[in-house]
Amino acid sequence: MKKGLKLTDILVTIIISLIFGLVYKLWGPLYGVVSTFGLHVEQLIYGMWFIAATVAFLIIRKPGVALLAEVAAAHGEFIFGGEWGVVTLIFGIGQGLAAELVFAAFGYKRFNVFVVSLAGIGSAFASIAIDYYYGYIGDLALWNLLLMFGARIIGAIVISGIFAYLIVAALEKTGVTNLVRPASNSDYRALD
Amino acid sequence: MEFNFSFQETWLHKTNPSLKFIIIVFLFICMLFVHNINFLINFMLGTLLLYLFFTGHPWKRLILISIPFLLIFLTSSTSMIFFGKGDTTWLKWGLVHITEESFIRGVHLGFRGIVFAALGIIFALTTRPVYLFYSLMQQLKLKPKYAYSFMAAFRLIPIMLEELLTLRYALKVRGVKNQRGVKGFYQKIKHYSIPMLAQSIRRAHRIAVAMEAKRFSVATNRTFYYQIGFTKYDLLFIFYFLALFGLSFATTAYFPYLPIEDVRYNG
C-alpha cells in the first residue's frame, strides 16, 4: 500500500475544512458579541475553532488529515477575510498539530468520543500556549486565567469532542463515509 | 447570486504572493516581541495607510470591511483591561479591577489585533487565491496535489453557499423550529452540517476521481499555465516595511506618545 494521502483524501479533507472555514469566519463576530458579556463566557464557544481537525479525522481516518484539515480551515477563514488575519494560520497550525499528535498517540486506530475529546483538549492547550505569547494572558489575574482555561477546555470537549463525534455518527448513516475511508480489518474479514 | 467585486489593480496586487505571505508571517513573529506601545501605534498607522490607500478597492467596501476591526479591538482588549494585573488602581468594582497598567496593556493588545487584522485583510484583498497557489507551487515547492485540491475546493464555495440557502428555505418551508439551549444548538448544527457535509463529500469524491484520471496528482516535472516570478514591486513591498520599521523606531525614540516602554507586568 502506498504511504501518504491520496488526492481524494486531500480534496475531501480540504472541502470539509472549507465548510468549517466559513463557519470559523462566521464564528468570529459571534465570539465578539458573546465576549461583551464578560467573564470569559465566550471561551465556552471557542471550541468550535478546533472542530475541523476532529471531524475530518473521524471521516477519513488517516494520518495527517487532522493537521491538514485545521490548516485548511484556518486558511479558508483567512481567505474569507477573517478578522484575525495571519494569526488564524498560526493558531491553525498549532491546533492541528496538537490534535494530530493525540491521534498519533493512539496509533490512528481509536475513533471514540474519548480520543476525539482528548484531541480537542490538545488543541485547546496549543491555542492557550500561543495566546500566552500573543495575548499576554500570563498577566491576567490568576482566578481569571483559570476561569478562561476551564471554559475553553469545556468548550473544546463539548463542541470539538462530543458534537464532532455525534455529527460524524449521523453522517455515517448517510453512507458517504464509506466513499473515503480506508478498508478496515472488519471489511477484510467480511470477505473471508 | 452575483457580487460586484471590481477593484483597481495596485502595486500590492503585483507583488509575489509567496513573498507577501512570508513577510506577513515574519511581521507576526516580530510583533510578538514588541512590548512598546508607542512603536505599535506608529506601526499600526503605517499598516492602516496601506489598507486605506493602496488596496485599490472602493471606499465603501473598505469601510464596511473595517467594521469588525472595532470588534477585534474590543474583544482583544476588554479582558485585559478589566482583569489584568497592575498597581495603580483606577477603578475597583466587584471583580473588575482596572489599573493604569492593565488598561495600557489592554489597549496594546487591541492595537496588535488591529495590526494583524489589517495585514490579513490587505493580503486577502490584494491576492488572487489562484496566483497564491501557483506561486506556492513554483516558489515554495508545495506539492501540486495539495495546491490543485485547494484551487478546486475554492471553486466549489459558490455551490456550497447556494446549497446553504436552499437548505435554509427547505427547513423554513417545513416549519422547523429550533429549541433553545445546548440541545437546540446541537440540532441546528446537525440540520445544516449533515446535508452540507454529505453532499460536499460526494461531490469532492467525484471531482477527485476525475482529477486523478487526468494525472493532477503526479508531482514530477509539470508545466504551469501561470508563471509567477518576482518583480520590482516585491522590492517596494520589502522596503515599505523596512522604512516603516525605521520610522516607527525613530518616532518612538524622539517623540513618544506615552512614557511607557514595556506594557508587561513586572511587579
From TrEMBL, chain A:
It comes from the Bacteria. InterPro entries: ABC_thiamin-permease_prd. It holds the Pfam family ABC_cobalt. Keywords: Membrane, Transmembrane, Transmembrane helix. The chain crosses the membrane at residues 7-24, 44-60, 87-106, 113-134, 146-171. The keyword Plastid does not apply. This is Thiamine ABC transporter permease. It comes from Aquibacillus halophilus. The lineage of its organism: Bacteria, Bacillati, Bacillota, Bacilli, Bacillales.
TrEMBL record, chain B:
It comes from the Bacteria. One of its GO terms (cellular component) is ATP-binding cassette (ABC) transporter complex. One of its GO terms (biological process) is cobalt ion transport. Keywords: Membrane, Transmembrane, Transmembrane helix. The keyword Kinase does not apply. It is a multi-pass membrane protein. It is found in: Membrane. InterPro entries: ABC/ECF_trnsptr_transmembrane, Cobalt_transport_CbiQ. Its main location: membrane. The chain crosses the membrane at residues 21-50, 62-83, 114-134, 235-257. PANTHER family: COBALT TRANSPORT PROTEIN CBIQ. This is Energy-coupling factor transporter transmembrane protein EcfT. It comes from Aquibacillus halophilus. The lineage of its organism: Bacteria, Bacillati, Bacillota, Bacilli, Bacillales.
